[in-house]
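Example 332, ligand magnesium ion.
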Amino acid sequence: MKLFVQIPCLNEEATLPHVLATIPRRIDGVDTVEILVIDDGSTDRTAEVARNLGVVHVVRHTSTMGLARAFRDGVDYALAHGADIVVNTDGDDQYPQARIGDLIQPILRGQAERVVGDRQTATISHFSPVKKAMQRIGSYVVNAAAGTALPDAASGFRAYSRGALMRLNIITRFSYCMETIIQAGNKRLRIASIPITTNPKTRESRLFKNIGQHMVKSGQAIARSYVMYKPYMVFATIGAVLGVAGLLPFARFLYYWVTGSPDGHIQSLVFGTAMLTGSLLCFALLVIADLQRSNRALLEDALERIKQMQYAPAAGEAQDQESASQVAPPRV
Ligand SMILES: Nc1nc2c(ncn2[C@@H]2O[C@H](COP(=O)(O)OP(=O)(O)O)[C@@H](O)[C@H]2O)c(=O)[nH]1
Ligand SMILES: [Mg+2]
């Protein structure tokens, strides 16, 4: 059992040494713990610090490509190097690396494909009430889309099984945390959650400049996931609302027209027609979204098979493993 702990970093030379020092190197049920630093075009000495502290696996981008891309490249690297489980922690030392052993337990026991560390945000003193409220609302919306009941959908302290990583595809550049939960939920991958406590704050978030930007970006990511995975919910709801809003004035117009009212009530007719056209459009979009969904399911299936072939152990390795497992026990 090979565990990769990956740390996406953007200018983390100050906090990385403590993160590395607190990652347990021996964990029950795991044969090797490998550490992978993804340096996303840092302008400080992040990669050098990592190498000096003995990190063998360093993926470096020459320019900053964003957290989602860094995560994806880390996962590709880990899978190519035989990872059975990948844990993600942050370079700002926000998460308790000492709990990695607990985090991967549900995967080791075969009870989950993915585990999220619940930061218990209600208890974090340096989170503002607005940030706490946003975390609650965000988690609620993500859970509704994913069909899960996770208390903290935006936590960056997560563990994935190899199988889960083969099935997940990162599409948006931003907020892959929430996106991967919605995907995992819709792909019926079991997701578990364990409570953790976070370390004291080391610096301001670099992912969001302010709470407004956080809200807009998270909102976009969630809206996109809904359109992708719950098109019925989105388009049928909007279509139904517009339909009702269109039928009422339409009925009003018809009533006056049939009863021979002298006023034309043309406004009702125009308004009703516009609303009904909108409603019709929504249902047309629903059909397209549904067709797209079938296409995507086929594409994702093909991608999973490609990954399985791509990351299968090389022929020599496979034979070695096979012959090792076929060695007969000594006779007594
Ligand atoms: N690859 C990459 N990592 C980033 C970027 N911005 C932040 N990070 C890393 O993502 C993690 C979380 O960032 P942080 O600023 O702590 O955001 P927080 O999750 O809101 O606390 C840290 O490990 C950062 O080094 C980025 O643009 N690219
Ligand atoms: Mg942080």
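Summary: Residues 90, 92, 94, 205 surround magnesium ion (ligand 2) (CB under 6 Å).
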